[in-house]
Amino acid sequence: MSTEAVPAAETDVPTDPPTEPCSVVWCGGRPYVLEAGAVRPRWVGTDGRGRPETLSTAQLQRRGWSHRRAASRRRSR
User: Fold this and answer.
1) Residue 57: exposed, middle, or buried by beta-carbon count in 10 A (0-12, 13-18, 19+)?
2) Cβ neighbours, 10 Å, residue 34
3) Which of 5, 59, 67, 68 could be stapled to 55 by a disulfide with Cβ–Cβ 3.0 to 4.6 Å?
4) Could you report the per-residue pLDDT of 7-19, keeping only the tens digit for each?
5) Of residues 50, 27, 32, 51, the one with CA closest to residue 42
6) How far is it, in rounded angstroms, from Cα 11 to Cα 28?
7) Where is the sequence biased in composition, kind Basic residues (predicted)?
8) DSSP state string for 39-72
């Protein structure tokens, strides 16, 4: 057995989004839920104006996604 630890940066960066229905990921600071459809699964969320938006897995990967919400970049005054 090796006692050497794997750096956290390597384990926290998944390459493919989850495939389980109802999985939640973050993209562009907004949550998206995987909806399993009859034809193909799609990620459902909202755009920057709060309108419903659906993304394919390929679109989600191109935009960048995470299991965790990114830290807010807003500064308090």
Assistant:
1) middle
2) 20
3) 59
4) 554 455 567 899 9
5) 32
6) 21
7) 64-77
8) S--EEEEE-TTS-EEEE-HHHHHHH--BSSPPPP
